[in-house]
Every structure is written in C-alpha cells, then in structure tokens.
Amino acid sequence: MEWTIQQVAARAGVTSRTLRHYDDIGLLRPSRLGENGYRYYDADALARLQAVLLLRDLGLSLPVIADVLDRRADEEAALRDHIGLLEDERARLERRIAAVRHTLDARTSGRDPSMEMMLDGFNDPYRDEVVARWGERAFRESNDWWHGKTLRERVAWKRDTDALVTAWVEAWRDGADPGSARAQEVAARHVAWLRAIPGTPTADGDRERAAAMVRCVGGTYVENPEFAAAYGGVDGAAFVRDALHEYVRVSM
C-alpha cells in the first residue's frame, strides 16, 4: 500500500510543505513520484517518518536526525531503540503527571504540598545507592511505586513509618534486649514494611538476598547520621541493627 502526501500529512499531523522540505533536504524521500509529480509514500517511508517525528520531538535537529537514521542499518534494532526512547519519555511524563496530581490533591484537601513528602522514601535521591546494592530493577520498581502514590497515600505511608520508628525508640529506651519478644515483634513489623516496597529483595521473596538486605539496612541505620538520629542516636540505631540481625538469624 501507499499513500499520497496529503494523506500522510493529515495522518501525521504535519503539513505537506513540511514533507516536501524533508524530501528537499534528503531526510525523507517519497517511495515514488507519480506521473503528475505527486509524492507517494509506502510503509517503509512511513516507518522512517515515524522515526523522524520521534527524534524531532526529543529535540534533535534535522541534520542530526538524518545522520542518526542514515547510520542505522538494522531496522528492527532501530525500532527497539525508538520504543526505548518512547518508554523513557512516557516515564518522564508520568512522573510529571504524578507531581501535578499530588499538588492538586494537596490543594483540594486544604493543605500545602510537603517538599519532604515529595522527596522522601525510595525515590530519586537514593538512586545510586539502591542500584549499587540491589540493581536497576529494584530502584525502578520502588521508585515507580513511590511516585505512583497520591499525596494522601504518601502521608499514610509516612505515618506508618513514623509509628514503626517510634516503636523502636520506645523499646530501646525501655531497656528491651534486641533478642526479646518485644524487639523481635518490632523487627517483624520492620521486615513486613520492607516487603511492601516493590522491587526489593524482601518483596521478591529471595530468602538469601532478603536476609542480606535486612542486615544491610540495619547497618545503614548506624552508619548514616540522619538515620541514626531518627532512632535516638547511634545507640538507638545499634539496638535496631542488632534486633534486625537477630530476626534474620532466627526467623529468616
């Protein structure tokens, strides 16, 4: 099948003049010229036009687009590349939509959006550390999970997290032993909290990697001053670490 320049222009949302310009500069040749001089485009030409429009929307100049396309000999590989670019763009737009939706939720509920809530959790600032420890998928899935929450859901999650931290601090201040029933009950809550975060080894059910993650998290609470402060200082964080390590030894 083939289509006239007017049909292609209307379908692609460009003008016939634009397509003629693409022809003039060698970016997109019609598949044939009719006896009347009309330009006709077949499926291969439309596939190239699709690539041109995609790369143009990503901000590339026409000469750069021509160079990129002319260097691509493998059409299937090029299409896979295009899909990857579109998926990246979709993810970027979804994050923007989520941010605007959070702001709208905040306004309709009569409160201002919290910058801390917008950045807290397993999201962008922790990317390098998460990827280094647990892989790209762990970051991507946990990050998508966090950004997919409404503001109310983030507030509820933060409230549950604060309650968990409070339970740890109270157990430590009351002199509980890391291996006590009380400490182990909080440790079980903590592991369940980790399991609720998609993409993490605890959520995947991999026992060995999940145990390693819980031990790592416990160590991080002691090593990171911000986390340690949340648990009442280094001694409180060490209590949490020891209780989590004991939980791994006995229950995982």
TrEMBL record:
Protein name: MerR family transcriptional regulator
UniProt-listed InterPro entries: DNA-bd_dom_put_sf, MerR-type_HTH_dom, MerR_fam, TipA-like_antibiotic-bd, TipAS_dom
Species of provenance: Actinomadura sediminis
Lineage: Bacteria, Bacillati, Actinomycetota, Actinomycetes, Streptosporangiales
Domain of life: Bacteria
Residue runs in coiled coils: 76-103
Domain HTH merR-type residues, every copy: 1-71
Sequence intervals crossing the membrane: none
Keywords (A to Z) from UniProt: Coiled coil, DNA-binding
